[in-house]
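Follow-up to my post from last week.
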Amino acid sequence: MKRFNKKYLVAFMFLLPSLIGLSIFVLYPILASLVMSFTNWDGLTPMKFNGIENYIQLWKDETFKISLINNFYYTGVSVPLTIIFSVLLAIMMNAKVKGIGVFRVLYFLPNVTAAIAVGVIWSSMFTKEGPINQVIALFIENPPHWLGSSLWAMPAIIIVSVWKGVGYFAIILLAGLQGIPHHLYEAATIDGANKWKQFIHVTVPVLSPVIFFCTIMAMISSFQVFDTIVAMTEGGPGRATNVLVYHIYNTAFLDFEFGYASAMSYILFIIILLVTIIQFRTQKRWVHY
Amino acid sequence: MKQSNVLDNKNIPQNGNNIKLRKSLFSLFTYFILLIVAVVMVMPFVWMLSGSLKDAATIFQDSMNLIPDNPRWDNYPKVWTSVPFAMFYWNTTKVAFLTTVGTVLTSALAAYAFAKLEFPGRDKIFFLYIATMMIPDQVTMIPQFVLMRDLGLINTHTALILVKLFHPFGVFLLRQFFLTIPNELSDSARIDGCSEFRIFWNIILPLSKAALGTLVIFSLLNSWNDFINPLIYLSDQSLFTLQVGIRYFQQLYGADYHLIMAATTLSLIPIIIVYLFAQKYFIEGISTTGLKG
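User reply:
Got it. Predicted complex:
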């Protein structure tokens, strides 16, 4: 018995640094945030519970609703675009052409660079007289005033996020493509399937778990978009690009409404959880393992 | 026939010449598309470099002219001296280095316990780690701030390190890898009287270089590119990291895009150099962890 206890003790010693840190800096904040979401705490005065007041307030909060709608717009457009482009890109990269390594390095580059820095670069490219509009002006009369227009600011943000994310997912998908056994294609060819049919009936089904994984990852991160917004629009013009995390940040660290902001952060958590659950529920219809 | 040329869906009779022609046409087409995408991916960086060598008047005037006629190299010293850029480099490096070392050490130790040792409640505690991974950082952001304030760590780098250090991803990643190492190795070492720590340090870690490398890259990038935490915690300019430094510079020089581009170039140089040298590990790390996740 004594010998066993010593074994456990050794194991706990290995675990301890991580577990203590996780408890103090992650687990405790998760619970504290839940408790705070039922208070109107400003971070200084004594904490007062106000029940579900914050959550009721959120229903009536115009800016919060707008930030939610904006975020769903951003997610609904940027995630499908990112996934479609990365699947196409992965297929192209899977072609055994020379110099593919160089392309891979270049495609992945936007992903390693800081979102704040690339946001700054793109916001200078999206200026009214900037290079993007100079190109567009070759084709149409009045190019949009991207970041200055409440109609076009979000599409600009979406373009940047697709540009930044596509390489990352393409590389994950490429690894999945390379895992598809060749005999599947050979069998399909014998059955008389052309390239398009092979794509629909072999590539997509076999790749579907990876596409599924990428979609979830892209969705989760799309609900957490922040850096790009700060660098490019600061939520504007007006509230046109005010998204969830941007609104949470402002509520917590500019208005110091810690309780209210915590309630929002839990709504964010619930949205992410629901999106993940819905995806897992519906995956049976299109994901094949 | 191994190429996935989805865009080409015609069924042409399979005769030798035709196939050859189709194949070379196809690879030409592939190259063309790949090249266009590559240009789109790199263009913003080229534009940044080019803009950083122009002046306020010419930066938008001849956007198409990517190689400026009179490159204004003095934009760089101007940027370098107008904000403490050297400090930004040092601060970012220090925070990223310490965060990475700390993450790898604590994660590896915990992962070893989860993968190779037995203790009561092991699987339940590991489940807790996984469940924590599902929770977005924004949920912990506010209480972490209050906690750091109570610990007197506002406006310090320690706060930035502590909020990143205990992310459960590292434990998860390394545990999955350690599980693939056969137990026979550590068992025979144990019979020879090796302590658990020596087994961990001398046997398991050297066999896990690939996974450790992935975690190092992940952690370095994550800390280096972190923006929201430095934004929340730092108010002293001398403590700024590159990311808040860039943001600060953007606010300071709102319309001077040529200077902003020079500052952005300076901020991106280190990460791009590291990436170009270690790109193999970056890309392999992402594709393997991506699939396992």
